Amino acid sequence: MLKSIKGTITMLCECFTMSVRNILSNKVRSLLTILGIFIGVTAVIALITTVGGFSSSLTSSFSGMGAGTLTFSITGSDLKSGLDANDLAELTALPEVDGVTPAVSLRTRVSRDGKYETGINVAGKNAYYFSVNPDTVKRGRALNRIDDENRTFVCLINPELVEELFYGVNPIDKTMYIDGVSFTVVGILNDDASESVNDMFNGSPDILIPYTTAMKLNNVSEVTSGTIYLAEGVSSEAATSVLESTLDAMFSYEDDTYTVTSMSSIEDTMESMLGMVSTLLSGIASIALIVGGIGIMNMMLTTVTERTAEIGLKKAIGALPWHIQIQFLTESFLLSVIGGLLGVVFGLMLSMIMCSMMGAAFAINYGAIALGVGFSAAVGLIFGWAPARKASRLNPIDALRSV
């Protein structure tokens, strides 16, 4: 038994050595055969890893922007188009809610001393927003309850507007015009504040003003969107249920009057979509692997024809059909695995470059590597089987006639 195992191991080592020798003896043909597998694995690794990195960055962005929050959007009914101050106070008083920040926005023109900028995004926020986002203000003061209650004409502007309208001047307590109305600058936003304030309703604002003032500029009396900050320890599911019950009562239980969304549901949807995209792209990229497998089959069939005499001699001196089959399968397997390993290296390099260009986080996806290498090995065995079987079934007498 031990002798039989030792003989099998020796035979496999000889098959490996001969396969390497045959690959090296036909360098150009082997290289072209490997190229198909290499391109397929590179594409699979690069796409899956890049999509994974983009998904992680997107999930982190959503989590940072919406951890412990719900968003609401009001479509309204014939009798009620939005939420007034009493409605907002009722939502804020819920035990599951820590606070509410209405979202009111407008896109307008701003000016100062003959200088003006168009297409400026202005967002209305309340005092509570600044209490949960204390890093929003770089210099000056935040908005407070007095600003909300009195609809004061004060604003905070981002550093870009400071450069455009107040170059060389301290903007604090200076006057500027928003939509033709005089506002006093009371603060400067942090450089990254626009990203932190950014949400699905406001976009990325350049100026923050009291939400009540923004409603006055928009000539509206009710809020149609905003963010609910949950009390500590309250789950999104529980808060959503309570919030929906409260809104149902506010809108007399009419259907389709509002939408409540949690960031976790958005994350799940995005992950599902990115997963589908990743699967689709990987499937398309796998076509290159199949083409590479066909190339391996073509090369191995050619090799069988070229080595007919060698096969005949081996069979004549006692080689069994499965010995011949394993030899050709080993060669096919090596070609495919070499292409797969090179594809993994270049795929990771390409993914790193793509992630860097898109600003996404790069992380090695070991599942993608296993898929790429495993698929390439499987392609080598599957497409190498037919040529190997053909070689193993050659009649030694017919093969020796070709000598």
Low-confidence stretches: 198-202
Q: What fraction, in percent, of the residue positions are helical?
A: 55-70%
Q: What is the general shape? A: elongated
Measured between the Cα atoms of the first and last residue, the distance is 37 Å
Strand content: 15-25%
Query: Structural class of the helices, strands and pairings?
Result: alpha+beta
**Biggest sheet: strands side by side, in what order?**
3-4-9-6-8-7
Q: Please tally the β strands and state the result.
A: 11
- Summarize the main sheet: 6 strands, mixed, barrel
Rg from alpha-carbon coordinates: 34 Å
What is the N-to-C order of secondary-structure elements (H for helix, E for strand)? HHEHEEEHEHEHEEHEHEHEHHHHH
User: Counting H and I runs of at least 4 residues, what is the number of helices?
Assistant: 14
Please state the average pLDDT score. 81
